[in-house]
Amino acid sequence: MGGRRSLDDVADDLGSLSLGGSVDAGGGKPAAEEEDEAVRLSKLGRKKDFKYMERVRGRLINVLEGLELHTGVFSAAEQRRIVNCIYDFQERGRKGQLRERTYSEPRKWMRGKGRVTMQFGCCYNYAMDKDGNPPGIIRDEEVDPIPPLLKQMIKRMVAWRVLSPTCVPNSCIVNIYDKDDCIPPHIDHHDFLRPFCTVSFLSECNIVFGTELKIIGPGDFSGCASIPLPLGSVLILSGNGADVAKHCVPAVPARR
Question: For the region Disordered, what residue ranges are annotated (predicted)?
Fold first, then answer.
């Protein structure tokens, strides 16, 4: 997820949304739900001390500075609801019911190639297209807006201080990986403002970081640091972790 919106816009859009789906007569959450949320928030894992020193332009720096891993953000029940929502959009995409640039499902012609992508909020061009548009966000290309349930996810992340209320996503790219799908080494385009984040569902995998990532074979990469991404976790990328170190997702062991 990436992008930036004002706090007023966020409040207008997210004020009445709830992942739990229940509200009391006054429009707020029931007391029991608020208590449960407080307990979950107290148990949230937050790791912000990632460190690996590499020499970059003659200087020794921590290339993982700016990474944060927040665990336990989404419960098992919330994960199921979110995944079912994504599968519903996938089915609609296959039927041609989404805007043309929202849904992409390439042919799986080799190991590591073929992950499904859905773009909400903005259209990102991964490579020079047939119209001569360079890589980056295409301003005049329309895709579907961020679905309400994904807005609820954003509200949760802001409320729990996983995301800053001053830098809230206004776009989202959903990747559906089958076994052996991957994302090759890259640094995200600066059309996506920092920080941005990735949320993990269905199965755990590793994300690999380093200034020099080696391609060992189709879908196989190695680097200086490998970080496991637990189910329901949110990884924040900023600073050197977003702009100095490349990152990749090697071929995943199971659908996610």
Answer: 1-36
